[in-house]
Design brief:
about 260 residues, alpha+beta, Beta-Lactamase, Arc Repressor Mutant, subunit A, 2 domains, 8-stranded antiparallel β-sheet, 8 strands
Length: about 260
């Protein structure tokens, strides 16, 4: 066992203290938990072997990394055995030191936002983040982007387990450090999006046509392709794109795509 790994292990409980509010929830048993875990394992087996792709599940009842699969060891430099034993601590040790303060600030924001919602709204809650990892042995800085949703919400509405879909970014993003957003659907179906750069709740009501265009944009289509697909003019597509930008409060298409990554259609 090398000296760097021993040093990492000594950091146990240094970072999980920031998540005590999560652990202090009064959890109830969930009757579907065995089936949900089985489904998670099947999901991991089917798609968790892709290069630069990780599926992970934190359990807030005991602040552990309950499940993970994918290209973990290559990306992080941590042996799988260490992640299984010291999962949550090892995960936060990976985070670039300059990103940690914002991460811990964001988890408080997520916790408070989630618990301010009705039970129905909680089941639509999602959040996303972009951050830097530091490889344990090479010290290479690795950018990753994660999309997260609650995977297990108990009968009292407590956030027991989450599901992270994490993708390695092979080109550095425009952001300089930890970036985040969260979203949920209100009881009336209105989608609410909150981002780091726009910390106030933003209600988003897109028309049917705008939603169609958004889906095609997220699939990587250009305006010309969208116009052909929907049998409308390219000028009409441009008008819809401008309206979508305005409604989201985004300054450009890149920022719009980042916000829409947490939007559920």
């Amino acid at each position: 066992m090398d000296k760097v790994l021993i040093k990492d292990l000594k950091k146990q409980e240094k970072f999980t203290k920031f998540f005590q509010d999560w652990a202090n929830q009064e959890f109830k048993e969930h009757p579907d938990e065995p089936k949900l875990i089985e489904d998670l394992q099947k999901l991991g087996h089917n798609i968790g072997i892709k290069e630069g792709f990780i599926i992970a599940c934190f359990d807030y009842r005991n602040l552990s990394l309950h499940f993970f699969t994918g290209d973990v060891e290559r990306i992080t430099g941590y042996p799988e055995s260490i992640l299984r034993k010291k999962g949550m601590e090892a995960s936060f040790t990976l985070i670039h030191p300059d990103d940690r303060d914002e991460l811990f600030k964001f988890q408080k924001i997520v916790f408070e936002a989630f618990h301010s919602l009705t039970l129905k709204e909680r089941h639509t809650f999602e959040f996303a983040y972009t951050t830097r990892w530091v490889h344990r042995t090479s010290l290479e800085v690795i950018w990753v982007q994660g999309k997260v949703r609650p995977y297990l919400i108990d009968s009292d509405g407590n956030f027991a387990m989450d599901l992270h879909i994490i993708i390695q970014l092979f080109n550095p993003p425009k952001v300089k450090g930890y970036d985040w957003n969260y979203s949920y659907s209100k009881e009336d179906g209105t989608r609410v999006i909150v981002s780091k750069n726009s910390p106030n709740s933003k209600e988003v009501k897109l028309t049917k046509k705008e939603k169609e265009i958004v889906i095609l944009l997220l699939e990587g289509m250009e305006s010309r392709e969208i116009a052909e697909k929907l049998n409308i003019s390219i000028n009409t597509v441009a008008t819809h794109r401008k309206n979508i930008l305005r409604k989201l409060g985004a300054r450009n298409i890149g920022e719009m795509i980042k916000i829409l990554a947490s939007y559920e259609f």
